User: What shape does this take?
Amino acid sequence: MFTGIVQGVATVEAVESRPGLSTFVIRFPEGSVSGVTIGASVAINGTCLTVTAQEGNRLWFDAMQETLRMTTLGRLAPGSRINFERAARIGDEIGGHLLSGHIHTTARVVSREQPENNCTLTFEMPDEWQKYLFPKGYIAVNGASLTIGDVEGNRFNVHLIPETLRATVFADIQEGDEVNIEVDSQTQTIVDTLARMGYERPRG
Assistant: This one.
């Protein structure tokens, strides 16, 4: 499990692509992966991956075909910057909301507005996922727990403070980019349960 509090930004050093599998070599900031062992879970842009090898501050991860299909990881290349979060431990503070690291879909950035000391990103999701979007609800974008601002159909926005921009890859994101999305599990459960009872949420 993860908390959606991004612990930093790491850099992809190499990508080895084979049929149905990609191996990522990622360099992490000094000291950020101390104590990590083979088999540990780390969220890479919100996607839970398993450490397969380690050398100093560099970790290796394998992503299979289904993961590459469902996420933006297949677009990573040497030099790409990614959000990371190590798996939560019992007793850790939950500063965001609980995440599984299983990506539901991707979204496209349709606008970026950045007045002084503010940044608003607007995203467009596939239509089938709009039923889980609620103003002031939770959503995870590239592994970061964020509060939804406005919702209009299958579009929603988030408002980012300077610290979030400093500590994540959102400083780099531009219109047209794609991001990984994990919807809030409690919201999904409630919406799906009501739908099974015949209370379908109206679209729009």
